[in-house]
Structures are given as structure tokens and as C-alpha cells.
Amino acid sequence: MTVLGSQLGRQLRGQRRTLAVAVVLATAGVGLSFPTPAHGAADPRAGSGASASPAAPQSAAPYIRRGITIGRSVRGRAIRAYYRGTKDAKHVLVVLGQMHGDERAGRRTAWWVRDRVRPRDGTGVWIVPSMNPDGNARGTRTNARRVDLNRNWPTSGWSGARRGTRYWGGPRPASEPETRAMIAFLREVRPDYIASIHQPLYGIGRHRGGIRWQERLSRNLDLPRRFFGVGNPRGTVSPTLTGWYSARFRDHGVATTIEYGARPGRRFVTVKAGRGITAAARVR
């Protein structure tokens, strides 16, 4: 069980987005405070007719920089998450740099956002450089148990077929510790936007939710909007992070796949993508 799921989850049960509690990391014994996403903010997914940011407070809210371990991989490697932003954030972006260990460019985007972006008042960014540290270490798409983490999410479209391939969804939904760590994390944070970065299909995932968010991403990153299917039966929810989150939290937020090309340039994966994603989410 993850630190977040076992400790933070118990403290936050019944609280929708309030994260202003002390979190004691069992592995380090360090007290950390989570930022508190505030209630009642205007929907940042709305168009130009809606307020993209709240009215400025009389005094600037405290700015927070935090790093925590949200779980462990099959081999025990830490899955780290970093927060940058206002303590009482009105809306929040999550940048996931890597889910497949052989898709490395998104990690560079995540590190750049962590180190270079200071979100504006009232907003915050959580950065997860990799949720598959074992796959990253081995250079494989799958985790250490040869499960495709982007087919392992507990939705109606999950399947345990294709065992022995790069696309096996695992022995059961959410069977993998990496998936469970991200589920617990996202349930507590409940971001307004999730940017899940992949390679090499070159596009912005097209889906029904968050059209203007997708359009902003497409424009900022110069990537076309495209449909990325995973072969789940018609009428079921894709067993992916974006499918799970967008279905479960459709009234609150949206998760979108960003597919870089096979060999994106250094400036693209750092400056262009980092600025483009955070600007599209209206956190800078």
C-alpha cells in the first residue's frame, strides 16, 4: 500500500479536494504539508466566457515547493511527485512525464516544469516524472512484471488478454503497485487537468471532454488532435489513465494524452512543451 493511500487517504476520507493536512512519510519520517485546492473556483475548462482565474487576493498566498513519495514500484523504486504553486490552489494541473519506460522524452518535460515553471497565484502543478521507474531503468514499455501500465486501469474496458505481449493489461484491473499509487494520488489531488505524455504517435488525444483544453494543447505544441484507441470493446471505457480519470471525474477534470514524435528535439521537450502545457492549463 502506498504512503499516500495508507496515511493521507485515511486523513482525507470524506474531504473532496482539501489537502491541507500534515503527511508523515513512513519511509523518511519527514512532516510535509499538502497544498489545499480551494472550493468554488470557476471551471478552468470553460471557454473565454468563463473566468480563467480567480480574482487576486488581497495578499499573495504562500508559495509551496514540495516533493513526496506517492508509492513504490514492483522493485521498490520510489514514485515521486513534486508540487509547485499556491497553498490554496483554485485549480491544479498534473504533468505525468512517463508511463512507458521506453518513452523517455516526457521525463525531460516534467523536470523542466519542476525546475523552471512558477505557477501564478491561485494555481498549482503536480509533476510526476515517471510512474514506471522499473521500466525506465530497464528501457522497457512494461513494468517489472511485464504489464502495460496504460492497460491496467480499472474500467469496463479492461482485459487480461494479450499476455506475453507489450500490451498485456495484467492479471486483474489495477493489479500493479504503480497503477494503485497513481489512483490513490489522483483521487486525493483531483486535478482539473492531467497531461499524460507518451511517444511516438505525434498528436493530442481527441476525446469528448475538454475540447478547448485539447485545442490549446494542439496550438501550443503544434501537434494535431488525433484519436488514440487501445482496442477496448465499443461502449466500454478505455483501461488507460486518461480513460479512467475522464470517466470517473468527468464533472471535475479531464485527462489528455500527449504523444510526442519518436525523436523530439531538446528545445521542444523542454521549453516549448513545458510552456505550452502549463499555458494551456492556465497555470502560468
Automatic annotation (TrEMBL):
Q: Which residues form a coiled coil?
A: none
The family database entries (Gene3D superfamilies) matched by this protein are listed as:
Zn peptidases
Q: Which InterPro entries match?
A: Peptidase_M14 (IPR000834)
Q: Name one GO molecular function term.
A: carboxypeptidase activity
Question: Which cofactors is this protein said to need?
Answer: Zn(2+)
Q: Which Pfam families match?
A: Peptidase_M14 (PF00246)
Q: Which UniProt keywords apply?
A: Carboxypeptidase, Hydrolase, Metalloprotease, Protease, Zinc
> To which protein family does this belong?
Belongs to the peptidase M14 family.
Name of the protein this chain belongs to: M14 family zinc carboxypeptidase
- Species lineage: Bacteria, Bacillati, Actinomycetota, Actinomycetes, Propionibacteriales
